[in-house]
Structures are given as C-alpha cells and as structure tokens.
Amino acid sequence: MQEDPPVLLNRLSATRYRGNNLTLQNPHFADPVWHSPKNSRAGISQRHLPYSKFEPSLQRRISLTTTPNPQVSSSMSTFSTPFTLNLSSSNKREKLPDESDDDDEPHSSRPKIDITALPWSSRTSSVQLSPELEKTRVILENFSRNPKLVKASILSQPDCPPFSSEDWENLIAGKPTNLTTSSRVSTLLRSNEKRKSLATSSLNLAPKPRVKPYLAMATGSSLGTAILIIAAIFAFPHRISELNAYRTHISQLFSCTPSSSHSRVINYDKAACLRVSQTRRYLLSSFGNFNNLNIRWIQAPSWGGNNRFSSTSGVGKSRRDTCHRWNKKRCPNTASACRYAHVCGKCRSNGHVKSNCKKSESNKD
C-alpha cells in the first residue's frame, strides 16, 4: 500500500527511508505542487512542509536519499515513482489584465468627487469670516481628511490634556461636547469617594456630607467646561481668547442665576455650543448672536420646556410633578423658581396644601 507523499514528508524527521530520490526545487516559494504519473495531486500548502522556513537565497535543488528503517515495513518505505516538487511560481499576486507596471498610484474602489461640479463651489458667499473663524475652518477641513490619524497624533503628545476618546473625536469633527455627562464628572470625583489608608489598609467609611443636587450639577458643569476649554485650546491654540471669554460668560450666568435654576444655564450652554458647531460663522465669544437662546432657556418661565436637552426628560414634560416640600410647608423656593409645581398633592390646586385638602372629605360624604 502506497502512502500519500505529504504523509511521508512529515515522517522524514522521525523515520529514515531508502528508495528513489525525492527531488525538490525552489523550496522557498509557497503552494508546491506534486507531479506524479499515477496519482496526480495539487494544492499542498507550504506551511505543512518541514522546510517551509528556508531562506530566499536557497535556490538550489535538494535531493533527499532515504535509507531503510527496520521498524517500518518495506511497503511503506519505497516509492513506485519519483516525485518532484514544482515550486517555480512566486508568492506575488498575479496582475490583472488591466494593470500595468507603470501604474504606481494606489487603487481605490470609491470614485473621486469633482469639487468644481458642486453647486455651491462656484457661488460667492456673502458671509465674511473673521481671521479666527477662517483659521478654525481650515484646521477642521484638514482634520476631516483623516480624523483617526489626527486623534492618534494628539494622544501621542506628552502634554496631551486628559480627555476621553469620544470627546476628542467630537472636538476634531467640530461637534459639540456634552459637558455634564455623568461619566466625566464621576471620573473626576471618583477618587474622593473611597479613600484607602496606607497605614491600616482599611477603607475610610466615614459618612460624607450630603451635597445638594443643583450644587453638584453646577460644579460638574463648571469642571466639564474647564476641561473642554483646555482640550480645545490644545487643538486650536488661536481660540484661547474666545474660549476664555466664553468661560467667563458661563460663570457669570451661574453666579447671577438662582441655584435651583442652574439647569437653565446648562441648557443654554448646550444650545450655544450646538449653534456654533452647526455653522462656521459664529464665535463663542459673540454673545449677541445667542440672545434668542438666552431668552428661550434662561429668561423663559419655569413651566416652559426648559428640560428639552435633559437626558431624563426626553421631549419635555407638559405637567410638572408636585412639590412634596411645599405640601409639607418646607420648600424654600418660590412658585416661579421651584422646578416642581406648588400645588396640592391630591387635587392639584394651588390654594392649599395636601393636608388641608377637602377633596377626600367630599368623596366620603
């Protein structure tokens, strides 16, 4: 019984044979083909051959003469016909019929866009950009050519400010960054939540003072604004005066707005950044262009849809929740400043609290 040539070659390292010569040609190249008059097979992969790691300089013919092994039967130790490896083909990919040797340009499956054929390319714009806006536009256009390379280059800098990868992508693309995300604020404050003592190796479980929600909201937004400005100045150094002026503007709005209405300042901040990112003709320091946003988000009554940008409110609530502290006569805010409705918890009347409501008594009668 004659065994297949690949099996015999794999046994050459452990078994010695005597028979016809086995001739190999160009063992460096892949995909060898066996040629045999009786049993013609093709497709033997080079990775299964023990000599697949020969150096490219070995171009000589190799002749293997085997000697018998007493532990192997004679039927397995002889070849009926000499086998020759045809390895003359190269590993290089064959050229397509339409390819030429002189074509050195990289091939792309996506056709190129003719910029001159775009309808707005030949139109003269009536908007005259300031030097700062024009420089920002040129930088963003350059970033858009390869955003991944730009982000990798920024992150490789030794003085790169701490900023998440997603926020860097938004900044490079000219998109607004969410300053009040819980992930960024929790990342900044997480180190103070649980402190470990090196001396006793025990957790500090001392109770922490309770922080009011609106205070934590304002603090988180201020930290997010500061981090964003540092990162933006790193990517756009020419915008340092613009960003510092905008940070002062937002800080002043926080200081002159009641603490319970700090969410309005945050919504105004988001709307202003969104408008600047959607167009290329506004500076963040041009506060006059945001007057309508100021009226919409800061000066509007509290019952308006000021929670449009809130992550928990969705489209905005048409009916506010009842203020439980007002029903217990402990709410320090006025009806216009409180985010909850100063109405009765039973009949939603603003003339009395829940304990003085007569609705339940009338139902009993």
Radius of gyration: 38 Å
Structural class by SSE content:
mainly alpha
Count of strand segments? 4
Straight-line N-to-C gap: 107 Å
Mean of residue pLDDT values: 68
What proportion strand?
Answer: under 5%
Low-pLDDT parts are: 7-67, 72-90, 98-105, 180-203, 214-218, 304-318
Count of separate DSSP helical elements? 11
- Series of secondary-structure elements, N-terminal to C-terminal: HEEEEHHHHHHHHHH
How much helix is in the residues?
25-40%
User: What strand order characterises the main sheet?
Assistant: 2-4-1-3
Tell me the count of domains: 3
Major pleated sheet: 4 strands, mixed
- Outline type: elongated
What does it look like?
This protein has eleven helices and four strands, in the order αββββαααααααααα. It has 365 residues and is mainly alpha-helical. Helix 3 packs across helix 4 (165-173). Residues 7-67, 72-90, 98-105, 180-203, 214-218 and 304-318 have low confidence and may be disordered. The protein folds into three domains: 1-89, no CATH class; 131-190 and 211-297, no CATH class; 321-365, no CATH class.
